[in-house]
Design brief:
The complex is a heterodimer.
Chain A (H helix, E strand, L loop, with lengths): L1 E16 L2 E16 L3 E5 L6 H8 L7 E6 L2 E2 L5 H10 E4 L3 H4 L6 H12 L5 H14 L5 H5 L8 H13 L5 E5 L7 H18 L2 E6 L5 H5 L3 E6 L2 E7 H6 L4 H9 L5 H4 L49 E2 L18
Parallel strand pairs in A: 3-8, 3-9, 6-7, 7-8
Antiparallel strand pairs in A: 1-2, 1-4, 4-5, 9-10, 10-11
Helix pairs in contact in A: 4-5, 5-7, 7-8
Chain B lengths: L3 E12 L6 E12 L3 E5 L6 H6 L9 E12 L2 E4 L5 H10 L1 E4 L13 H11 L6 H14 L4 H6 L7 H13 L5 E5 L7 H18 L2 E6 L2 H7 L2 E6 L2 E7 H7 L3 H8 L39 H5 L5 E4 L2 E3 L12
Parallel strand pairs in B: 3-8, 3-9, 6-7, 7-8
Antiparallel strand pairs in B: 1-2, 1-4, 4-5, 9-10, 10-12, 11-12
Classes of the chains: A alpha/beta, B alpha/beta.
Bound molecules: adenosine-5'-triphosphate (2 copies) and magnesium ion (2 copies).
Chain lengths: ~325, ~325
Amino acid sequence: MKILEIEKLNMTFSSRGLNGVERVHVLRDVDLDIDEGEILAIVGESGCGKTTLGRLITGLISPTGGTIKFLGKDLSKTSNAEKKLYRKSVQFIQQDSYAALNPVKTIYQSLYAPIKANNKKLSREEIDAMIGDNMEMVGLTPVELYLNKYPHQLSGGQRQRVLIARVLSLKPKIIVADEPISMIDVSLRLSILKLLASLNQKLNITIVYITHDLSTVKYVVGEGRMAVMYLGEIVEFGKAKDVIVHPKHPYTQALILSVPIPDPVIERSKPEVRLKSMEIPDIRNRSDGCAFADRCLYADEECKTWKLANTNSDEHIVCCKNLREVPSYDAGETNE
Amino acid sequence: MNDILVSFDNVTIDYVMKKQSLRAVRDFSLDIEKGKITAFVGESGSGKTTVVSALLQAISSPGKLTQGNVYFFDGDNKIDVSALKNEQLRKFRWSKVSMVFQASQSTLNPLMTIYDQFYETAYYHDAIASKEKFDERLNYLFDLVKLDAKRVFKAYPHQMSGGMKQRVMIAFALLLNPDLIILDEPTTALDVITQKYIFNQLTDINKNLGKTLILLTHDIGIVAKVADNIAVMYAGSVMEYADAYTLFKEKKHPYTRGLIEATPSILKSPEEIQPIEGNPPDIRNLPSGCPFHPRCKYCMDICTEQRPPLQKIGDEHYISCHLYANNTQKL
Ligand SMILES: Nc1ncnc2c1ncn2[C@@H]1O[C@H](COP(=O)(O)OP(=O)(O)OP(=O)(O)O)[C@@H](O)[C@H]1O
Ligand SMILES: Nc1ncnc2c1ncn2[C@@H]1O[C@H](COP(=O)(O)OP(=O)(O)OP(=O)(O)O)[C@@H](O)[C@H]1O
Ligand SMILES: [Mg+2]
Ligand SMILES: [Mg+2]
């Protein structure tokens, strides 16, 4: 069953600048279906619109075009009560765990408040039991060790776990995790990623994992799918394993080739990245056709006006007019 | 051993504060090979920035070099960096050693064109023979880092992307033609394609111009890509030092091994990678013995009692671990 159906989603930000109102068309015709209980990754470089898409999915902002359906219901046409339920069901976890926790509250207080607010009738013992369960679920054990600590007494990884525990108390159906590990110590990152995957397995929560770090995707999504974004559009979509090892879109190929492999023998024998320009253009100067055309070795004149195909399908989708001319690529293969 | 450019000799650095002093770097000894790229890799707080700052007498306050020396070999001349004073120090910085600081792009002056900022710095260092010579040098440097000089000369920082600004910073570091450039997390905030591009340029600068580079990073993937030699740091000390191929192949120190095996890779399946158990060290409160022992799978009694010395276990391969006492046991 589809938990989210995103169709022709558009987002234009307007801001007042020196020359009157400036508009930035950030998301352009994004189509994306998410199944209940699946884990999906959204990857792409800085500024491509990942966070914007995440904020739209969590209902923090409303789109300027297109529709989002949650369990079949168009969000723009729901009642206030339904909206409230939606906001509770879809939770956002952001990168900065320090800013998200109140520094003068203990972990217990931070976890108690949202449960109480949403379940006025629960007794203190029942709430404590829920807190204990959630903390165990996120691996903050033994629980007593953490309850009376303040955020600054915890490591970044532990704070991120507290935030996840807090989100769990709302019994969400979807968790959108936006770069959840980028501020965490390297040695602790992996365990947070594995925690996200385990929430999906144990609680059947749908996970949307947003990241610019392709090397982490597999550890969260496993057999799940991945969408690659470039300048506000999804350019490739498919099973994460396939997309990572056999990327088809010229942009995805360049992206994956650039990800360093932590092994000097393999890393130093990789072929060069070949692009017309290494600079990411400003989203404001995106061409009407394929957004990647300016940098693509395989692009022709038509690409600049060519409209993207619909990406709404389960298969491995690649939005490229000249796909047949793009050489195949295998991430596991090296020059030697 | 090849030529040595810099020698850290038993360096200890403390941040001296009213309540409690904090030992950020402890008994740090390491020789930096001339003409090579040496990476200091370690997690946040392991002391990377602090230890190299001593090489420029630029330890941030209230930090103090409380023990040891840092030497720079300028031909036959052995310079004790901590003894440099005023004018000597000013000359030493930039023209012998320059540093691209962590997040340094934000130090560009937002109100000045890039050209003017270069001019000002060169002027301050008495490095301008004539405007023509200066322009020539700038064109050459911008060419090296693949920046369109005509455009960038006139640009203000806000008109440039993060990747362009970082390349401007690298050109800056090269301005007075130093022997050594220190790069502190030079690509952390940048996207992978830009990152790859910048490291290609840095490797060219190393290979073609013979510049020695010291790279500080927490990113194992980057180290695998560019480093000739690697020093793995933990809680302010060197845990292991070797050339890149040896280090990745042998990963003898349990922390080195843990770090490499915890690093995500597009080629490794989830079963092939393992997080390091436990928490990063709190240097205010270090355990006795080896600082890594609470997280170490191979911890022995002696590890909780005695700090292992840095000892040689192979050709230019050093390790600080009791498992290798007398060179007998092997991981
Ligand atoms: N409120 C806003 N007003 C105007 N422009 C915005 C706003 N929010 C985002 N943008 C612009 O939209 C584009 C996409 O931003 P977004 O934060 O979604 O990117 P991202 O993919 O999450 O990037 P990053 O990897 O850096 O987090 C950027 O060009 C950004 O400047
Ligand atoms: N100016 C300062 N005053 C007090 N303590 C400091 C200061 N600068 C650094 N420290 C402390 O010294 C230790 C080492 O810091 P340092 O910045 O050298 O680490 P690092 O390896 O460069 O880390 P990162 O990867 O986060 O840059 C840390 O515990 C840090 O909090
Ligand atoms: Mg973002
Ligand atoms: Mg640092």
